[in-house]
Amino acid sequence: xxxxxxxxxxxINKLREAxxxxxxxxxxxxxxxxxxxxxQTYYRWRKEYGGLRLDQAKxxxxxxxxxxxxxxxxxxxxxxxxxxxxxxxxxxxxxxxxREAVKxxxxxxxxxxxxxxxxxxxxRSTQRRAPxxxxxxxxxxxxxxxxxxxYGRYGYRRATEVLRRNGWxxxxxxxxxxxxxxxxxVPKKQPKRARLWLNDGSCFRLRPEYKNHVWAYDFVFARTHxxxxxxxxxxxxxxxxxxxxxxxxxxxxxxxxxxxxxx
Length: 263
Hints:
mainly alpha; two-stranded antiparallel sheet
């Protein structure tokens, strides 16, 4: 015999009838038999609904429904946050990356495709569309990689022009897609700087060939014993190896010469 589910109003009415019969001196077993319930059910109902009126039972039922609805909303929101955290590690800029992200979320979190696509703002038609790969795609990809290795300063637009000259009938969008899939980029142009060394690490400097040919200067910063800053300009003449050694103090210069030299 299938179990009958009672509403809150029916439970309260039966509890009132049980209280009336028990007040008349009827045993609990007879009262439960009359109400078509077991003693365990009677005690359980009395524990849950004992002392409630009909309006209170109705309010309790409404609160239970609202609690269930809020729990569902919180669970849905937590699941959406989990989906977003799962795909937050990378940027979903292309349809292929979005397809892979949807599949990864479905596999890891066990959610449906419809829900994952809704959270990630991915159309289900786009998700289910099988990409069509042309027959000449691998050969074109090899040509683009070879071009990028040969001409490192050229981008996909220049690569499109060169491939068209070589007989390829392609547009710049296809070349750009393959270019991005392979992770090809044009390196940033470094600013030109005056330096004293070559690419191989060797250094070249102007060597003195005669007296007063090369002069060098530098600013020296120091502090006195009481902490005041001290700045000094040191100027000296580079001496060639073939010049005879000079006596200290002989090669000193005047302040006027130093100012003229700096100007």
